[in-house]
């Protein structure tokens, strides 16, 4: 998991982005995942200005830097990683799948340099139509690609940025959470089974002589359901009310019989 | 890693999506990652029709199903998972972080039911403004959230779909790739060091009596650089040409001295 200081040492560099919606979407994803340093190279000035209205990411876009060249945008970075939809050109660079590339970036961000300064990392994204040019790629230490399928390699820019940043902050140790509800104890199951059994007897679903086998069927059903303690209480309340009503019907019938 | 048959058993259900760009972006991400079954509930008909022009995902949108209700959209699914930006409402459901939730979904897709049919899984996404309603959530077995930061929880719909699908197809075993270039052998380093040393001697950078220590400095530099075999060949060619030119200058000087 990346620390806030590490997030701040990542520069998201958009090269020649043309669509304000994509610049805005990239900014929004950065904000969602806690990244703050955006640099924009060679974008239409208008696209960049239009993007400044993006939902929930206005602060981030206000501090985004406009650079004249890729060289300027990565000048303070010790690791420069380009993103690419593979298959479009001969690649001289080592190419990492996102899962492995993100691991290498996290390692770089955690490394301490001899003078106790830490590394900055630039992550480059190319234009919507053409991706990064060979000139852009020559500034990169290595390239990274999102594992899209061969039939449809090219991703939307805003989605590609979102996925790369998600992979950087993702926690592979995140454990499955259990229900807020405590697992029900066997005693709670038994109380529910009893009330349900009485309702089945009263309603005529089960005859008195089949009581024991019905009770066993019910118990097994409730164990399979693996409900929580709160759910058992809810169910118990429902069944008690139904049982009460069913008994009323019986009582009314008795009244009618005696009428 | 999910098999094609497993990808086809996932239904991506968009509930009350309002923006054609988001429906199109969701479809594009599905196509990028090999998912094919989209269902749309309660979307403005117009939004859905506008979306049909989305880049690279026209086929997928053409076969998307319009449903009247969430119940209809999930009717053939044995596992129904809702997505949510947490923090907006009291949640009765068990809530999983995406990393853990995707693991549970992959397990469900791989399970075989007694009759040897396999489980279908529905993944529900709510509207851009409000997410899934309580009524929508009541159809879900459990909920999943993307780990966005507390200060900016809510994601763009197209990006949220892209990240969830990426997490489903992601391969945690993906190993770092190495350069296509073979690591250079020590002999190749030595050849480069020799030519470089001669260039340094000819150019006057190093005097003859410091030759040995300069050679050691060069050798250490080349070992640190960890270049590949192809790179060494490239460098050797460059240095040989430079050395040739530097020697020409020497020869010319000799010619001039004798003139």
> Quick one: how many beta strands of chain A?
7
Largest sheet of chain A: 7 strands, parallel
- The run of helices and strands of chain A is HEHEHHEHEEHEHEHHHH
Q: Which ranges of chain A are low-confidence, i.e. pLDDT below 50, for 5 or more consecutive residues?
A: none
Distinct helical segment count of chain A: 11
Rounded to the nearest angstrom, the distance between the terminal CA atoms of chain A is 77 Å
Q: What helical percentage do the residues of chain A reach?
A: 40-55%
TL;DR?
Chain A has 259 residues and is α/β, with parallel strands linked by helices. Helices cover 49% and strands 12% of the residues of chain A.
List the helices and strands and how they pair.
Two copies of one chain form a homodimer.
Chain A lengths: L3 H4 L2 E6 L4 H14 L3 E5 L3 H7 L6 H5 L2 E3 L2 H4 L5 E5 L11 E3 H13 L10 E5 L8 H4 L4 E4 L11 H13 L16 H18 L7 H15 L3 H30 L1
Parallel strand pairs in A: 1-2, 1-6, 2-3, 4-6, 4-7, 5-7
Helix pairs in contact in A: 2-3, 2-8, 9-10, 9-11
Describe the fold and architecture:
2 copies of one chain form a homodimer. Chain A is an alpha/beta fold and about 260 residues long. Chain A has 11 helices and 7 strands. In chain A, helix 2 (about 20-35) packs parallel to helix 8. The longest helix of chain A has 30 residues, at about 230-259. Chain A is elongated and about 100 Å long. The model of chain A has no long low-confidence stretch (mean pLDDT about 90). Chains A and B meet through helix 2, strand 5, helix 6 and helix 8 of A and helix 2, strand 5, helix 6 and helix 8 of B.
